[in-house]
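Archive entry. Fields below.
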Amino acid sequence: MRASLFITCYNDTLFPQTGRAVVQLLERLGVQIDFQPAQTCCGQMHANTGFRGEAYSQAKRFVQLYRDTECVVIPSSSCVAMIRDQYAGLFEELGNEELRRQLAALLPRVLELSEFLTDKLGVEDVGAYFPHRVAYHASCHGLRGLQIGERPFKLLAKVRELKLVPIENLDRCCGFGGTFSIKNAEVSTAMLDAKLVDLLATEAEFCTALDNSCLMHVGGALHRRNLKMRPIHLAEILASTEGIAT
Amino acid sequence: MSGPVMDPRIAPPFPDAALPILQNTQLRKNVAHATDVIQAKRNRLVAEKQDWQELRTSAAAIRAHVLANLGKYLEEFETNCTAAGGVVHWAKDAAEAGQIIVEILREENASEVIKIKTMTSAEIQLNPALEAAGIAAVETDLAELILQLGEDEGSHIVVPALHVNRHQVREIFARKMGLPQLPDDPEALTAAARTYLRKKFLSVSTAISGANFLIAESGSVAIVESEGNGRMCLTLPRTLIALAGIEKVLPRFSDLEVLLQVLARSATGERLNPYNSLWSGVVPDDGPQRFHVVLLDNGRSEILGRKVERQTLQCIRCAACLNTCPVYRQTGGHAYGSPYGGPIGAILTPQLEHMRHAQSLPYASSLCAACYEVCPVKINIPEVLIDLRAQVVDQEREESRRWFDPMYLGMKVANFAFGDAGRFRMAQSFGKLGLRFFTGKDGWIRRLPSLGSRWTLSRDLPGMADQTFREWWAKREAEREKGAR
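PREDICTED_STRUCTURE:
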């Protein structure tokens, strides 16, 4: 099995450990990973802020870069949702027939990491070991955009020594919302405060998710308040094995 | 204390309007509690309906079909309503609708008019228009009465006084009804309202209603409500005026079977609304003998003409999107500066204002899509929000001051950086250098300038690692190549 890693712009820049974990995990599972250095961004930030033309140029880049790829793996559900839900509309408005055709052919091969593991590889037990109390935060794009369902829970259930603790109001947004957290910083903060109440009630050591964007938001507040709970991307938990310090 | 500004043309932008509300812990507690209660009821009743998704699909299909054939069904409604003895008026905007209603009431020599709760009248600011014409509007819905007596504004489409708790209601009633001894239990409060309103029902001979639905094939108007005040207004007065947005029409009576089910469950968490009133024109010696319907456009035709935005008009005003919205939960409705708050308000209000006002509202959402998930007529609110944001940005592109907006500038710079990998790498290097200045010993950033300060208001930011992912990958590839050689 071959897969091309679309690391996403912010993982590349701010969370390189997540990308390294994806590589480590997938190579352990026998996947041949490649990384196209020409990649940049999926265009979500521009699209969701209203910069449609700019988003279109990034969407076009993505499709042109990956159209001949066997499979694209993305450790970010919101970027996958962007590609699945918004590219077609952008291409219909600004693109051409050829681009639309290429997108339609590519879409089934673009997968979020937990989708790739459970659907494509058919594994739930990835051989991970993570002896900690973990709360899973359901990012909105994974939950409602991708309808990710039980996939992350199935993967976490098979991690040795991991104790998964349920969180109240699982389906409630943490208040990140990309530029929403800037434009509406105070409201975003109020939403984040509410999420922290639910998270802290779990007494988990780690908060995990499919998206480093939510984790950057939650983790930023955890750090600001000197709290012990730490954010960690699902890929990093799944990459952890015995003998490797976590 | 000055009340909230609910006119989108003069209301402050959402982030500013939200600030005082975020400080109002009582109001936020009231909103969170009320929406939790309604949502729990709604979720329970939706769960018992095994064909809920099919019902949603049907409801959405009916509403979409209406919008695709709106002219035809409106004319059919007009013909049948007129044949049944009603008078149909067409109003292109708020001012025209107000004039029509004032003229009708003047012909009736009305100095007072009783009202059923109607969002559309709030949209066109009918009460101030009536007042200016010397006509006193009396709200008969309990929540609307509370707001009217408390000189407050509605903050929710279905339960407009949900930000007020019963102790506050007691205070308002005691003061305005002259009942200093009034206790604050719900029975006593509703009894006081009942006594107050009963006099109005029996003495005022003109009434104004909205319309939940208009039925094209019979020319009927449908109203659903919970308190019976609507039934009073629809039966006792001599003259009845129904104000309805043009999108409210349904083709057939039988379409109510689908829509009343999804509306009641979504709006109040009931299997059916307690009062479902339907009337067609005038029946001699039974109910109002003069019946007017005012069909209001007020920007709706324009919305109808837009491909993505058209679905906004599918709305049946159930407010399920408000109850589930994590933003609304924090701010309540007043921050939206419009009678229509929450997710539906964030898309409807700026469109009703022809995108000339309320441009901050499409951004008043984290795009979490909880609204879309519960919408009984499947309005993809996030999709519309994003489209409206694009319209707002397109307006900004025409302005020379755009280059002084750090968000605009940042977006253009980011777009340039994302344009090819070389530029992106360079931006990462600049970023690393720049952020180093702000990064503490522990590798975290606690304070950033400009737009970044909006982030660091409440959140730290991890500083950049020594190596980006692509640098790590390139190094690994180079080493592998060396090893292979």
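CURATOR_NOTE: Chain B touches chain A through 67 residues (CB under 8 Å).
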